[in-house]
Amino acid sequence: xxxxxxxxxxxxxxxxxxxxxxxxxxxxxxxxxxxxxxxxxxxxxxxxxxxxxxxxxxxxxxxxxxxxxxxxxxxxxxxxxxxxxxxxxxxxxxxxxxxxxxxxxxxxxxxxxxxxxxxxxxxxxxxxxxxxxxxxxxxxxxxxxxxxxxxxxxxxxxxxxxxxxxxxxxxxxx
Length: 174
Description:
8 helices, globular, mainly alpha, Vanadium-containing Chloroperoxidase, domain 1
């Protein structure tokens, strides 16, 4: 329990510091845009494009579908199992910039999906990997700046997304 308390204390400190820095207002404008790229529409359009371009047998499309079929239920079970309050509910006198789509914060679904997609696309298009991971990192960062996640929510989202992507690649390609 002492370890969990220490992690939470550090998490709250980092979250509070980031949301009180002088450039927070400037960050919010950029983070609203970046966060929206992780809302899901981009992933649907990406899958439709791969289907249109390559057909249903495309290994990237098959891997994306499998990965989302695994990641979304695992994310849902974790989020509703841990039931960690979002910063707005956990911290007195704090209001998030946006209204989240659900009640709990752990893990970050936006971050998980972004890192999963970045890992899968980076595998098939290695020259894009650095840019894809930069985008995924910004998605996770944006969720903290917008006040809907603590930093560890996004860290666990990174692990979940990359883990599911690697599993899916091994399952489809081996």
